[in-house]
Amino acid sequence: MVKRIVAINASPRKGWNTDMLVEEAAKGAASKGAEIEKVDLYHLDRFAGCVSCFGCKREGHKGECIYKDSLKPVLDAVKDSDGLIVGAPNYFGDLCAEFKLFYERLVFPYLTYRTDVRCCNDHPIPVLLIMTSNAPEGMYDSMLSNYRSVLSSFIGPTKVFVSGETMQVNDYSKFDWNMFDGDQRKERREKVFPSEMKAVHDLAADMF
Ligand SMILES: Cc1cc2nc3c(=O)[nH]c(=O)nc-3n(C[C@H](O)[C@H](O)[C@H](O)COP(=O)(O)O)c2cc1C
Predict the structure, then answer these.
(1) CATH no. for residue 180?
(2) 17 lines ligand 1 (CB under 6 A)
(3) Which protein residue has the closest C-alpha to ligand 1 atom 23?
(4) pLDDT (tens digit, 9 = 90+) per residue, 32-49?
(5) Mutational test site, ligand 1, from 13, 134, 200, max ligand atoms within 8 Å of CB
(6) Residue 146 lies in domain
(7) Whose CA is nearest to atom 14 of ligand 1?
(8) The pTM is what?
(9) Cβ 113 under 6 angstroms from ligand 1
(10) Residue of the nearest CA to atom 2 in ligand 1?
(11) For the chain, which ranges sit under pLDDT 50?
(12) Tally of domains within the chain
């Protein structure tokens, strides 16, 4: 049976760092025969995070987000899939807001609010969470370990891939910035980023 993998880019910038890594991970999964459904969250019509309706806790809909907006088909696709790749840029020390809207609605339906059985997901799937950041790798390990732990508990075994010190713009000289060395970022993009692309490709090929 062909595996179906949902690959989600939660960065607003299609074709930039996060999206490139998501695309490459998707190619890794596809290299093992998986079918990919790619979603750019910022290209969907406006959607909400969890609206706390508790529909997912009622008989007949347990484990299912029932809120109908443009994210609902994406959540349904993830539910029916064999794996999830999701990438987000770091904004203000956390994963970006659009990712969090998705994350709330992905995870909350499987949380039971019961003390005996905490999770009602009977179809766990592997998850590859990708984060890109200005900061070097390692800076956000504890924040990411929380996401890894929650995703592993409620969605399925989760691996995290980080690419730090990304090239944020093509030409740093156009901006009044002195916090980052544009030449160093460009050099990193040319010398280090390609090996990260290969690493994420191989990781996804192994996972899915
Ligand atoms: C609103 C905003 C907030 C950011 N905050 C952080 C931050 O707190 N820490 C960090 O390391 N990078 C931060 N960044 C940088 C991005 O995480 C980084 O450039 C990322 O690779 C961008 O991903 P993209 O190229 O896919 O858009 C921020 C960028 C923006 C636009």
Answers:
(1) 3.40.50.360
(2) yes
(3) 89
(4) 999 999 999 999 999 999
(5) 134
(6) 4-207
(7) 91
(8) 0.98
(9) no
(10) 91
(11) none
(12) 1
